[in-house]
Amino acid sequence: MTVKKYDTVRLVDRSLLRIKYFIQEYQEDPRTATLTINVYVVGKRYRRFRDCEDLGGFMAYELREVYECGRSTHHTWEIVELVSLIKSNNPAFQFHDKNTFICKYIRNDNGKEDVCIRRLTEHEADDIGRSRVDDRRIRSRFIHGTATVSSFNKTQRYSFGDAFCGVGGTSAGARSAGLRVQWAFDSDAATCQTFSENFPHANVLNAKVDHFLALKGLGKVDVLHLSPPCQTWSLAHTVPGQNDDANSASLLSVKELLLMARPRIATMEQVTGLMRKEDNKYIFIFFEVNLRNFFNAMLRDFLEVGYSIHYRVLRAEEYGVPQVRQRLILLASW
Question: pTM for the whole thing?
């Protein structure tokens, strides 16, 4: 097999490598007067989604969908075969050839608690058939239902929706940033009363998430914030609570909320136990589940709707909060 610069190869571990350059390493043994030459290939590495275990099965049944995951170096003996790779920013793009792989995402991991998974831009996509499309058009098609790109109005205020709003701490920050709080909901009546006093011009509903989703009439927002009940995932939660099932189920509503509001940007705040309780089991509606599976399923919901995501564990005391507290923060954008 002959390989050259910019070729894409499949490695023994089933990942792919697009070769950028070669490295030769010389080792001389003076005792035997022999010279050994080792050749390595260096380039961008790609893994199949079906081999990824922490995204809740996102694209697990797509044999040829891969994501870029940084630069990597490999010995030439690890190369199995030559393949083709097409990079696309078109969510609907397909190429029906068993030796051609498709990359639509880039993943950057700065540790287990700082991960970014983003869709490719049109400038990063290859120009093959419909593999490259206008980013603004596909974004507008998702948000507005039309591929027509609307002109930007500098006087327009972005709208904000607050799911599981509490008394409105996040909405207060959004208002200070110039956003217009359009709607909010929470299942606690007293909490909603306080919120409505703080935000008299917003539509505030005292409702559980399934009842709120059934309304379907409050309209889309530009920015959506989600803070589902966190008691079940808290590291301090050591014994079952009477609302555990309902609190856990609220996390499974993320996809429907995104599809209803269709925000440009979505944010989420949660306790770190949601992603750290890998070894803890929880009885959820008569089934024993790993708590980390809820977090993985939530990530899958964001990705299936088409969002790029970045999540990280942050320390509240580093952001002006007079309390030692860690929080999981997730940002999603379309």
Answer: 0.87
